[in-house]
């Protein structure tokens, strides 16, 4: 479409601009499509590169690990290979139960503290709250081995300075719970805050406008509304804690029997991987793959489970 | 649309109100009320009386401080840092700021309905309606059930929800949700009901239903309503308070008059300009 220039008629700037846009757009279309495709391709390559190590790890875990899974593996305690039976390595039931007890106790105190602190962060705009938020952010970035040292000093050895006197209790599962719990608190706190802040202000106001006190609104309105997000927050923090090795490395001791008492030395899965993998016995070293696979499987189940549960809860409400 | 027909239409739609609505008892009395946030005045020197069992409309362009004034009546500004309310607002005999009444107690006497329907998403229809009673410590089942039925009937929602009181509030339509919010506010039997543009997010039919409701409810509560919709103000209110933004961007009271008078022969030329759509 081209306008014929008629003598004496002034050119229309709008029509001219419209034509210019059409002409240039058409001319550069091929090049723009090409650039766009190249960019999409680049994204695909980047994704692939990022996924390769992930799948490589998963593949080698399944490949080398799944053969160790058996009834014995999950129900028996470890055993040292002998010359007669070099494959008699027993099982990891003690480590599974140890992890369960240690992480369970950790969750028991970290979840309420974390969620309540998160509620405080979400509801308060005081200086103290913002200080607490910054502290929590720094704590999530701490190397987890620091918490191991902390728990070692405070719980295992004991502490006697600045007028604070704590008797050491020696190596014990509960010391690991302490370290893991302290590690979980800031994670739960931040994630709960995000979930609780997601509740629209107008819903809070509706509660307040009915004469409810802030605490009542938080308990009866805000927390129930944010529940799917809170559950996801808590389970994600928990699944992260289950795999933590460094904080418990020096504090829970070791045990080759099934131990339910958290005051005693205990075994745990991440530590069992470490100990098996550094053992002089070939079969024990190989068995570490089996434990690692189980740990990854657990984390996967917890992650997927929390997401599915939250989605289900969300659906129930419609 | 400086068209005289606008005014004719507004006048014909107006509720038939004989005499001055201010001749009866007073429910809310504003005296030199000024609200500021962090030292910046949002609305200043408001002085007028909202009559009991009547509908008072707060009208004016955006930024004229209508909602700010409304939220001062149930002390919602208490929660905003840097908000200062001066002057006095009296509810009956109580000075709501200086009278020593706790904000939570005041809010059971002054209910509120918001711009967008905001039922509690995790609660059923029934639990939503009785939530205000429960929040304030009432547990007795018979009391809750009677209050719920009465409030839902008053909100013209009983017929459509009485068989599914345990369904989630989110299963209702937008208009029904807003009526649920009205029922929720009514269930604690407040003396005053504040409505902050309650139909601005609703379709015309739902809007009409709520407007009819407002006119019916005034035998039960005094209503103060903020609206951007001139026709709505003309249709539902007995008394109109008109506000404009002053030179320093603070809202100012321009004129308070019986609705019929304000829409037909306002005293202030700025009121006439506004209702005829010349600005705002």
If you had to describe this structure to a student in words, what would you say it looks like?
The complex is a heterodimer of chains A (318) and B (280). In chain A, 70% of the residues lie in helices and 3% in strands. With 318 residues, chain A is an all-alpha fold. Chain A has one domain: Orthogonal Bundle (MetI-like fold), CATH 1.10.3720. A two-stranded antiparallel ribbon of chain A has the order 1-2. Chain B is 36% helix and 25% strand. In chain B, strand 1 (26-37) and strand 2 form a beta hairpin. By secondary structure, chain B is an alpha/beta fold. The chains are: A mainly alpha (318), B alpha/beta (280). The interface between A and B is medium-sized, with 22 and 32 residues.
Q: Quick recap of the structure?
A:
The complex is a heterodimer of chains A (318) and B (280). Chain A has 318 residues and is mainly alpha-helical.
Physical arrangement of strands within the biggest beta sheet of chain A:
1-2
Major sheet of chain B: 10 strands, mixed
- Got a strand count of chain B? 10
Q: What best-fitting shape of chain B do the alpha-carbon axes yield?
A: globular
Number of strands of chain A: 2
| CA-based gyration radius of chain A | 29 Å
In CATH, the architecture of chain A is Orthogonal Bundle
Quaternary class: heterodimer
H/E series of chain A: HHHHHEEHHHHH
Per DSSP, the total helix count of chain B is 11
Topology:
The complex is a heterodimer of chains A (318) and B (280).
Chain A: H1 13-65, H2 71-75, H3 93-123, H4 127-140, H5 144-157, E1 158-161, E2 164-167, H6 173-197, H7 201-209, H8 214-242, H9 269-277, H10 282-316
Antiparallel strand pairs in A: 1-2
Helix pairs in contact in A: 1-10, 3-6, 3-8, 3-9, 4-6, 5-6, 6-8, 7-8, 8-10, 9-10
Chain B: H1 4-13, E1 26-37, E2 40-51, E3 55-59, H2 66-73, E4 83-91, E5 94-95, H3 103-109, E6 110-113, H4 125-135, H5 141-154, H6 158-161, H7 174-186, E7 192-196, H8 204-217, E8 222-226, H9 230-236, E9 239-245, E10 251-258, H10 259-264, H11 269-275
Parallel strand pairs in B: 2-10, 3-8, 3-9, 6-7, 7-8
Antiparallel strand pairs in B: 1-2, 1-4, 4-5, 9-10
Helix pairs in contact in B: 4-5, 4-7, 5-7, 7-8
């Amino acid at each position: 479409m081209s306008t014929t220039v008629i003598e004496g008629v002034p050119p229309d700037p709008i029509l001219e601009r419209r034509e210019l846009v059409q002409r240039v757009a058409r001319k550069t279309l091929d090049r723009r499509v090409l650039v766009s495709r190249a960019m999409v391709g680049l994204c695909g390559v980047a994704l692939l590169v990022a996924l390769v190590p992930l799948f490589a790890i998963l593949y080698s875990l399944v490949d080398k690990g799944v053969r160790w899974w058996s009834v014995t593996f999950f129900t028996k305690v470890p055993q040292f290979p002998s010359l007669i039976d070099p494959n008699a390595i027993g099982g990891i039931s003690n480590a599974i139960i140890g992890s369960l007890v240690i992480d369970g106790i950790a969750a028991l105190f970290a979840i309420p503290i974390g969620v309540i602190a998160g509620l405080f962060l979400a509801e308060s705009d005081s200086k103290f709250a913002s200080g607490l938020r910054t502290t929590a952010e720094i704590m999530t970035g701490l190397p987890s081995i620091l918490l191991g040292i902390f728990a070692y000093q405070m719980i295992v050895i004991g502490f006697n300075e600045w007028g604070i006197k704590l008797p050491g209790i020696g190596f014990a599962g509960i010391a690991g719970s302490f370290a893991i719990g302290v590690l979980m608190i800031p994670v739960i706190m931040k994630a709960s805050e995000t979930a609780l802040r997601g509740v629209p202000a107008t819903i809070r106001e509706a509660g307040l406008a009915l004469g409810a006190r802030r605490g009542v609104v938080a308990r009866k309105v805000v927390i129930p509304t944010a529940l799917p997000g809170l559950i996801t927050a808590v389970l994600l923090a928990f699944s992260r804690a289950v795999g933590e090795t460094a904080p418990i490395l020096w504090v829970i001791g070791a045990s080759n029997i099934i131990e339910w008492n958290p005051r005693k030395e205990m075994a745990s899965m991440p530590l069992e991987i470490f100990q098996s993998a550094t053992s002089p016995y070939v079969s024990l070293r190989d068995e570490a793959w089996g434990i690692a696979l189980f740990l990854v499987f657990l984390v996967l189940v917890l992650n997927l489970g929390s997401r599915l549960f939250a989605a289900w809860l969300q659906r129930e409400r419609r | 649309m400086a068209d005289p027909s606008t005014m004719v239409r507004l006048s014909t739609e107006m509720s038939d109100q004989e005499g001055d609505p201010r001749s009866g008892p007073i429910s809310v009395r504003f005296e030199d009320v000024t609200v500021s946030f962090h030292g910046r005045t949002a609305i200043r020197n408001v002085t007028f009386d909202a009559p009991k069992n009547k509908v008072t409309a707060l009208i004016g362009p955006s930024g004229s401080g209508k909602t700010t004034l409304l939220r001062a009546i149930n002390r919602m500004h208490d929660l905003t840092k840097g908000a200062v309310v001066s002057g006095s607002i009296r509810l009956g005999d109580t000075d709501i700021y200086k009278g020593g009444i706790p904000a939570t107690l005041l809010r059971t006497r002054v209910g509120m309905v918001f711009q967008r329907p905001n039922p509690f998403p995790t609660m059923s229809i029934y639990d939503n309606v009785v939530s205000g009673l429960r929040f304030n410590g009432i547990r007795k089942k018979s009391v809750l059930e009677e209050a719920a039925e009465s409030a839902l009937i008053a909100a013209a929602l009983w017929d459509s929800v009485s068989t599914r009181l345990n369904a989630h509030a989110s299963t209702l339509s937008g208009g029904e949700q807003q009526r649920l919010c009205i029922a929720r506010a009514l269930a604690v039997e407040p003396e005053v009901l504040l409505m902050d543009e309650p139909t601005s997010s609703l379709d015309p039919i739902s809007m009409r239903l709520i407007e009819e409701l407002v006119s019916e409810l005034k035998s039960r509560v005094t209503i103060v309503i903020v609206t951007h919709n001139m026709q709505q103000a003309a249709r539902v209110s007995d008394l109109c308070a008109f506000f404009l933004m002053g030179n320093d961007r603070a809202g100012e009271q321009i004129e308070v008059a019986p609705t019929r008078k304000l829409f037909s022969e306002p005293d202030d030329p700025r009121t006439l300009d506004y209702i005829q759509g010349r600005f705002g």
